């Protein structure tokens, strides 16, 4: 890369999305612009649906839901963010922010059209297609759509390790293990301290019977996060398959002590920005 490299964990995301391929099956691990009219009903406990509000200036429907059943702070954030769009319907930031608010509260049916509108208004801001890709995956969207969003982001931000972990996860669930391995390894090359990338690469290589590589990456993952049960269980298997039985037994005992729950997270500033909205109550 010719541009000066900034540290990905602190860099604010930059320019434009696009489209690519398809790719998902179980491994051990862990928008296309649509019509702008938004479906305005979402079940929210015992809440009732409220019709969308349309701005006269743009005839764009702004999602509206019944916030009376929500805790006060959540309702306040949603109402304030929605009102910002009504005041400035051509603001990509306002639309994207409303998408983030809905996204943070798992209101994905409302988040997706907000992200799409933000993408229309500012195609250069890569946060919106990235978050839309996450939301569409949560909604169980077609893999082609999710991969198009993720791959487009990766082309614009090739220095951002979390996107290659996301791509690896999609590929591994689809059974595209060679491509998943390569995505995880690329993330680990960009950030050697990224435990989740080493675990993913190691698990993919274990499934591909690439035992030396599997051991290398899984050992690195367990050095970085020694309490991760899934990484330890995979490492135990890699040791056993490569004939290191004593090590396999010791590692298996350790893995059982930590159980099957993952303790490795993906440090992802773009998604943290979404998560922080819900934390601020």
CATH superfamily of the domain at 13-30 and 39-157 and 268-281: Tetratricopeptide repeat domain
User: Mean pLDDT across all residues, rounded?
Assistant: 82
Q: Can you tell me the overall shape? A: elongated
Q: Which stretches are poorly predicted, pLDDT < 50 over at least 5 residues?
A: 1-6, 11-59
User: Got a strand count?
Assistant: 2
Across the major sheet, the strand order is 1-2
- The number of helices is 12
CATH architecture of the domain at 13-30 and 39-157 and 268-281: Alpha Horseshoe
Distance between the termini: 41 Å
Beta-strand content bin: under 5%
Q: Which range best describes the helical content: under 10%, 10-25%, 25-40%, 40-55%, 55-70% or over 70%?
A: 55-70%
Question: Mind describing the biggest β-sheet?
Answer: 2 strands, antiparallel
Helix and strand pattern: EEHHHHHHHHHHHH
Describe this structure in words.
With about 280 residues, the chain is mostly helical. The chain has a domain at about 15-30 and about 40-155 and about 270-280: Tetratricopeptide repeat domain (Serine Threonine Protein Phosphatase 5, Tetratricopeptide repeat), CATH 1.25.40.10. About 55% of the residues lie in helices and about 0% in strands. It has helices at about 70-85, 90-105, 110-120, 125-140, 145-155, 160-175, 175-190, 195-205, 210-225, 230-240, 245-260, 270-280, and strands at about 55, 60. A two-stranded antiparallel sheet has the order 1-2. A hairpin with a 6-residue loop joins strand 1 and strand 2 (about 60). Helix 2 packs across helix 12. The chain is elongated. Residues about 1-5 and about 10-60 have low confidence and may be disordered.
